[in-house]
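Continuing the series of single-chain predictions for the mutant panel. This is the parent chain; the variants come on the following pages.
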Amino acid sequence: MNQEVVQDQVEKGLMLPLMEEFYTIQGEGSHTGRAAYFIRVGGCDVGCHWCDVKESWDPEKHPPTAIDQIIENASKYSKTIVITGGEPLTWDMGPLTQGLKERQMQVHIETSGAYPLTGDWDWICLSPKKVKMPVPEIYPKAHELKVIVYNKHDFAFAKAEAEKVSSSCKLYIQPEWSVREKMIPLITDFVMQNPEWQVSLQTHKYLNIP
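Parent structure:
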């Protein structure tokens, strides 16, 4: 397949720059503890300085892979599929989610919301970043708001973001891994004072799994 054809397939969402795919336990947010198959798509220009998968940023480093193959791989493992990145909404997620749902799978996304929402989702985890804010139309569609806390200023950011989502959206606050020991006491106090929020921890890292 020549480069022009590949690029056309990528633009149509029929191929995606696949970084990795793996079966594991969801470690964060509302579905913590559930078995899930993760599809990590390359490409992200949000650029969080504390990102723990910076190798996902450059889509050129990850081979364009036909979504039919991605769907076939996922169908062998789990009914719960999590699309993550990178920033998956860099690409058209419509064809991938359609194919997964045709296999009767529950399809989740973890996104910064920096790009317009494409695809058909059973669960949208919105994790907004200050460096590139979500597009306004994604807020009312989010099932879960997950704010990462790196410093004390992020608590005010979390409250401001919570005002933009629906009343049914679950609110999670999560320490950035490298500063967790310093931030967990502050997060504990925050949630006790603001009980509409819940603590999310990267439990997969405590379990030493992907």
